[in-house]
Structure of Succinate dehydrogenase/fumarate reductase iron-sulfur subunit:
Amino acid sequence: MGYEAKFRVWRGDASAGDLRDYAVEVNEGEVVLDIIHRIQATLAADLAVRWNCKAGKCGSCSAEINGRPRLMCMTRMSTFAEDETVTVTPLRTFPVIRDLVTDVSFNYTKAREIPSFTPPPGLAPGEYRMKQADVERSQEFRKCIECFLCQNTCHVIRDHEENEEAFAGPRYLMRIAELEMHPLDTADRRDAAQDEFGLGLCNITKCCTDVCPEDIHITDNALIPMKERVVGKRYDPIVWLGNRLFRR
Ligand code: SF4
Ligand code: F3S
Ligand code: FES
């Protein structure tokens, strides 16, 4: 059975904006993105929203719904009571372009800064051999749809814009961990993770993991193991002695 929902949507641009109220029809089985599209089709033709797949796979429709970072296409209207006001606002960490669309280029900048996969010289792609456990670890990280909900949520930049230069965010620290744990990657990424990408700023609050729509265990499986590797290199007396002797 359909009903009329109360929606409150942030409208504006980089200079200013406010929340606008809309009363809009909801039908059984619909998700928040359906309602945003209905507002666009019937009440506010100029409402800006980014989306693509409507299947939780492109990572485009990230927003904050009643204050929680979520994918609009994967948030069912049945999550909310029929008399509840559903408030949709743009990702708070990134600059607004217009309405629900933010400028997420920070993430692409960070992605480009990470040195790429470095296999041993002379090893051709068809010659890669890996243990199944290593394949499975990589596969978990590669489920990432780059929705940037984790990047938006982590307090290190959400509450401290000044850290943006020094902190790559959970998604890209996870990428560094993926490469560092890759058995065929020959680069040592531990110093860079700590000194250039801000691993030390992560105090393992796990908020990134809580919002990940792909259920990737970002903190437990990527960030903490990466921190252990950095500590192992820097403070293990045997590693320290080896580094001194062999000048790695
Ligand atoms: Fe989104 Fe999860 Fe990837 Fe972060 S790790 S960008 S929350 S899919
Ligand atoms: Fe931030 Fe996730 Fe670490 S939320 S502090 S990157 S555990
Ligand atoms: Fe693709 Fe929502 S529209 S993830």
About this structure: Residues 218-235 form the longest helix (18 residues). Residues 3-101 form a domain with the Ubiquitin-like (UB roll) fold (CATH 3.10.20.30).
